[in-house]
Amino acid sequence: MGYKPIESYGVIGDLHTVALVGIDGSIDWCCLPHFDSPSVFAAILDDQKGGSFRIASLYEAQHKQMYMPDSNVLVTRFLSDQGVGEVVDFMPVQGPCEIRKIHQIVRVVRAVRGSVRFRLDCRPAFDFARRPHQVILEGWGAIFEAQGMKVSLVSRFPLGRQGDGVAAEFVLNPGETTTFILRQVEENGHGSVHDGVLLEARLVGTEALTQTLAFWRQWLRKCSYSGRWREMVHRSALVLKLLTFAPTGAIVAAPTCGLPEEIGGVRNWDYRYTWVRDAAFTNYAFLRLGLTSETEQFMAWLEQRAVEGARGDPLQTMYRIDGGRELPEEILDHLDGYRGSRPVRVGNAAADQLQLDIYGELMDAVYLYDKYGTPIAYDSWRHVRKMLDWVASNWERADDGIWEVRGGQQQFVYSKVQCWVALMGLGAAPGRASYGM
Question: 117 and which of 58, 251, 279, 319 could share a cystine (Cβ 3.0–4.6 Å)?
């Protein structure tokens, strides 16, 4: 189908990872099990090799896409004279403890008006299309198995092998619904299609949709904003929540990698990590909206980074979502890139840059949380103070600057200003160390 405009994608997620769903019903991006894991679908980076999972009406139709109110449940609708069909996409967030390690995409297909003929095409391409896989057809669907990863697709319609993927055509009568489940189980889990059928019978489909809608709407009720821009603010908050990693509280800058700053350009970076700067700004937004549980989780993650900084090493510009420091950058020469924008990069060498400004943003986040959230514990202040002792000794150094240019270190004014914001911020705290100009 070729490349779609970036703005034609909706996003769904389960607070571990996300999937991008195009307005044509195609999932063109998803990494499993986490944001910074290798991809399962990456057609957005190569429409031939990257892999996708498409469900769409076979009728010539107008496409519409929207979210169910106050949720991250996405509806893609196909409107034609022959009939109106839709695909409801979501990733279950909560459920019984025994399935918490299961990451799954649920696709509920409906014939809204008239009988609608649909086509399903599912072709994963594991590890950015670098890891070959085998297709195993079973009575209730298919299994795609590569080294170290297994994904199953549950379907009540028979699937036919098509190359290294599967396909099916089916008709839904007026008001009829069917559910497809694509799921991947983490290590020590089971991935057979038969397990998926049992899961579907108990939890997926209508019940899982109800649970997922309830989760998002209950979460959004915590938002304190009630002004004239309520709908837009709520939608922005829901997207920011999708970018949080539940196990650690980390916040990713974006869930994608390799997309160009400009079509045909070479600045195609991997943003599936946590920038201290960007996450601090997101944390501020959560605080202003009254979403304090997110700020508590992020501050716990940030405190661990401050503990590391208190040991005398400078903070990194970014970290993995589990707090890891290693982000080796590599170029994927075998991928064409979005609309031919090469090279496609995964990992990010900017993690090794020195960016002194991040201390100012970090201290701003600490100050705001201390004022509007929960007072910072004494031990935490001690870690912050030791970290800023390093800043006081090194603020005059040249650094790489806020924009991560790769032309060498220079004396950036913004970096110096933010260093002093950090130092004066700590000095303003009663009973804490005071640094003078």
Answer: 58
Q: With contact defined as beta carbons under 8 Å apart, do 20 and 27 qualify?
A: yes
Residue 342, both tokens:
């090469």
3-state helix, strand, coil in the chain (%, to 5): 30, 25, 45
CB 435 within 8 A of CB 392: yes
- Are 174 and 41 part of one and the same domain? yes
Q: pLDDT tens digits, residue range 208-240?
A: 899 999 999 999 999 999 999 999 999 999 999
Whether residue 155 sits in one domain with residue 268: no
Beta bridge partners of 44: none
Which tokens is 149 given? 């990863």
Task: Give the per-residue SS3 of 307-339.
Answer: HHHCCCCCCCCEECCCCCCCCCCEECCCCCCHH
207 within some domain: yes
Residues in the chain: 437
Task: Find the domain containing 200 and state its range.
Answer: 6-218
Q: Is the distance from CB of 125 to CB of 39 less than 8 angstroms? A: yes
CA–CA distance from 308 to each of 136, 272, 380, 426 (Å)? 47, 21, 12, 18
- Last residue of a domain, which of 190, 218, 246? 218
List of residues 6+ apart from 235 with CB closer than 8 A:
67
Number of domains in the chain: 2
Residue where one domain finishes, among candidates 218, 240, 257: 218
Q: Which of 118-122, 216-220, 421-425 has the lowest mean pLDDT?
A: 421-425
What is the chain's mean pLDDT, rounded? 90
Q: Provide CB contacts within 8 A for 375, sequence distance 6+.
A: none
Strand ordering across the sheet containing 133-138? 62-67, 74-79, 84-90, 102-113, 177-185, 149-154, 141-146, 133-138
Q: What is the pLDDT of residues 51-102, one digit of tens each?
A: 999 999 999 999 999 999 999 999 999 999 999 999 999 999 965 444 456 8
Contact criterion met (CB below 8 Å) for 297 and 374: no
CA nearest neighbour of 154 among 143, 165, 169: 143
Question: What type of residue sits at position 274?
Answer: T
* pLDDT, average across residues 302-313: 78
Cα 26 from chain centroid (whole Å): 17
239 and 209 in one domain?
no
Q: What is the pLDDT of residues 14-34, one digit of tens each?
A: 999 999 999 999 999 999 999
